[in-house]
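Milestone M4 deliverable, item 7.
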Amino acid sequence: QVQLVESGGGLVQRGGSLRVSCRASGSIFTIFFMRWYRQAPGKQRELVAEIDSGGNPNYADSVKGRFTISRDNAKNTVYLSMNSLKPEDTAVYYCNADVLPSHVSGVVNYWGQGTQVTVSS
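Output delivered:
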């Protein structure tokens, strides 16, 4: 069984910074892509950023230049550093990962439970 657990959300003022983390644990052989999604009230879940196992990132246009995704493969952890935060960044942020579990022949996609990020104006 594999679990993704996010941490680090909270309340921050406009223009502030915050870092969220997500650690994968369990019977993991390797992790391919790790991603951050977000979902604001009344809106669809959207992809914010993703990073492959080699550390190559991709970002949504709305966060380019403000957010940085990174990962520590030794710790099975992905981070999202968020700067110049705006009220429209307010959402529940979800971690997502493509995992090859130990003793399983195929890749499985997992989700975390989400962490709230609120940006006040």
